[in-house]
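This part of the workshop introduces the protein records we will be handling. Backbone structure tokens are a discrete shorthand for how the chain folds in space. Once this layout is familiar, the rest of the handout is easier to follow. The record below serves as our worked example for the rest of this section.
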Amino acid sequence: MERPPNLAAAIDAAAEALVGVLDAASSRHNVSVSPTQLRVLSLIMAHPHSNVNRLAELLDVVPSSASRLCDRLEAVGLLRRVADPRDRREVRLIPTAAAEGLLRELKDRRHQAVQAVLDRMPNRVQHELLLALLAFSQAAAVPAPAGADTSARTA
């Protein structure tokens, strides 16, 4: 089956639209936390027992920049630094209950915003989109064969 000539462009446009929907939902939270700080909290939640060095790796920044981000989150009560019980020289980053609630609320708002868009689509198209997204996720998770050209192509 031949793919449409503008499939990559259509996916890019759809991704931009999705980011717009998610950003609009995210901008309505009531805490003065920047998108970068929200990303830090999400990374810490996804990588329990992280320290500042690990966070810096995840963000691809120097540890001092990651530490300053943590300082700001700690100042507003969204992050705690605690000594690792196995090695007191290590300091772990722990999201507070307020951070967990903020991320949960944000996730709910984002899901509601996406659902509002999906509700404007016919059920058949929603099902096709689900299948396509699952296939895309699966294909993206498989490493490309050695020497394969991974640049975007059009038919």
